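Here is one chain, start to finish.
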Amino acid sequence: MGAAAHAGRIEVIAGAMFSGKSEELIRRVRRGIIARKRVQVFKSHLDSRYAGLYSVSSHDGAELDAAPVDSGAEIFRQVRPDTDIVAIDEAQFLDAGIVDVVTALAAAGKRVIIAGLDTDFRGEPFGPMGALLCVAEEVTKLQAICVRCGELACRPQRLIDGRPARYDSPTIMVGGRESYEARCRHCHEVPRADEDQRALELPEARVAGARS
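Its structure:
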């Protein structure tokens, strides 16, 4: 038990959309398989894009079979005693209990590989990802390319009918290139609810000033 327990660790792959998080998770899992490790792969049941509900897939088409789950507790129940590597994709959609679950799995000697968005469309911490970053031995922060200026992108820009989604929009909205862009800090836009009203008030104020 002692040697196996010491082998346990948590690795988190975080970053913006289109930065290669799932691709990196797939790469690490495949290397584990080559090393003849017993692997189980899980993903949030909310993500059925690309290859479907029962696969982890990257935007570039790479994929792995995966079990869809809706909570950390469900992962804990499904992990087999002889599993060496537990991989979890789209962890930002899972509940806060995932933090205790991966900590327990690592303590039991398992290598846990987690991938997820670290910030939501507002640029704020997404779900349990902040806490997962804190408990991990290894953190890989990936960045995409900003579609506006070409600099490194660290935020997902949500678009509704081609325009930036407002701050009070729902936190979770699963989508791909039709709904999101990768943007840097400076090109990222999140209008607040009162900005639309302010935009209407400014022309009216100018007209009133001209009349006076």
